[in-house]
Specification:
single chain; alpha+beta; Alpha-Beta Plaits; metal-binding; Copper chaperone; HMA_dom_sf
């Protein structure tokens, strides 16, 4: 298992957290996804044989949340 961390632009609503966590959590290979509202950081634990950090970032950005790092 690997861990990927992403810094997002400031989140404006708590429902953003649920949306990101739910969508990432449904991806094949993702074990856990956590979003910290106050710091706008995403931490995802995933199986690198099933999914890549680039794919996680792509999904986050498709949801409308630009990744800063």
């Amino acid at each position: 298992m690997k861990t990927a961390k992403f810094q997002l632009e400031p989140l404006t609503c708590p429902s953003c957290i649920k949306k990101i966590e739910t969508k990432l959590g449904k991806m094949d290979g993702v074990d856990e996804a956590k979003v910290l509202f106050n710091s706008s950081k995403v931490k995802a634990t995933y199986n690198e044989e099933a999914v890549s950090a680039d794919q996680l970032q792509e999904l986050i950005e498709k949801l409308g949340y630009p990744v800063l790092n």
